[in-house]
Amino acid sequence: MPIKETVYENDYLRRFVKDKEQAKKLGSSSTQKILWVCPNCKTQLVKSPGEIKRRGFKCKVCADNRSYSERLMEQLLKDNNIFYISQMRFDNCVYKDVLPFDFYLPKENICIEMHGEQHYDVRKNSKWYDDRMLFSDKIKEEYCLKNEIDYVAINCSKSDMDYILEEIKNSKLSDILNIYDKNSLKNAVMTRILNVDVKYLIDQHKKGISFLEISRETGLYRKKIVSILKKLGEYNPRGGAKNNTRKVVRLNDNKIFGSIKEAIDEVDLKQENNIVMVCRGKRKYAGRNPKTGEKYRWAYYSDYIEKS
User: Fold this and answer.
1) Which Gene3D superfamilies match (predicted)?
2) pLDDT at 105
3) Taking residues 264-289, what's their average pLDDT?
4) Domain spans, the chain
5) Phi/psi at 293 (nearest 5 deg)?
6) pLDDT tens digits, residue range 15-42?
7) Which of 27, 71, 166, 247 has the fewest Cβ atoms nearer than 10 Å?
8) What span, in angstroms and rounded, lies between the C-alpha atoms of 169 and 56?
């Protein structure tokens, strides 16, 4: 009986299989165990095509549960030959339990905290809001002040390598960090990006292939593709991203926002497209007043001025 689809013919399986010639002769749902290779760390594992097809390719070496920003900072410290202790706990720094610091540098006497978006969004209606976390942040900072330890909180509210590196360079850590090897940092970051051929994403993006086309080829959503590229410091905005930096006006109260990003942060919208669609006349409203329920109307600032 002829094979309906070989491993080689399956776009997803072909990226991970080691022996391409063997892949041309084996069915994509076969139970025969063969060798597979992680495209990120090159670790090999033995699984059947059927299992990989059903459950996806998962590399145990790359299954790192630390946050993106922690892995970035850890690699920076390694590259600069700085001794550190991760998840450092001091007996007297307690809130229900002993609180961990992301990193402690004994020689420099510095505690480092990598603060994600949840540490900065203090709106009580936000999905990130957690008063316990905010309280523990305060306890940590006060503990360091009391015990003459330098406390450095890095703003990692954006999972963007360039953004976080800039925040680090503008902190006290700039006095001790001199090496910023982006290739080394990329390798550290890639250990968490599972089931994705990162090199393929970067190559396609550099060639100018559209996100829609990359999405079709990889099965990844555009948002995920952009997120990965930003984490690797490889993201170059396409023409459409320019819309997000345009000034907009909320017509309900004529409030002007410097960018669409600024506007969506205030009204707690999930996507920029909602406001863009209103500004282009393709929908009537985006967001609403949390107290009155009034729906918000928007316009590009340039259009607003012309009509005034």
Assistant:
1) VSR Endonuclease
2) 96
3) 79
4) 11-55, 68-183, 193-236, 242-307
5) 80, 0
6) 889 999 999 999 988 999 999 988 766 7
7) 166
8) 38
3-state helix, strand, coil in the chain (%, to 5): 40, 20, 40
DSSP string, 212-239: HHHHHHH---HHHHHHHHHHTT-----G
Residue 177 has a pLDDT of 95
User: Domain 242-307 falls in which CATH fold?
Assistant: Arc Repressor Mutant, subunit A (1.10.10)
For 269, counting Cβ atoms within 10 Å of its Cβ (0-12 exposed, 13-18 middle, 19+ buried), the class is middle
State how far the alpha carbon of 202 is from the alpha carbons of 53, 137, 142, 162, 188, in Å: 24, 36, 43, 16, 16
Encode burial over 179-201: b for 16+ CB neighbours within 10 A, e otherwise.
eeeeeebbebbbbbbebbbbeeb
**Cα(1)–Cα(27) distance, rounded to whole angstroms?**
11
Give 5's DSSP letter: S
Q: Which fold has domain 68-183?
A: Endonuclease; Chain A (3.40.960)
Distance CA 170, CA 26 (A): 55
For the chain, the first-to-last Cα distance in angstroms comes to 73
- Which of 17-26, 40-49, 57-66 has the weakest average pLDDT? 57-66
Instruction: Supply the mean pLDDT for the chain.
Output: 83
pLDDT for the residue 30: 92
Dmax over Cα atoms in the chain, in whole Å? 76
User: Nearest-CA neighbor of 58 among 179, 171, 189, 196?
Assistant: 196
113-154 pLDDT, tens digit per residue, is 998 877 665 544 444 456 677 888 999 999 999 999 999 999
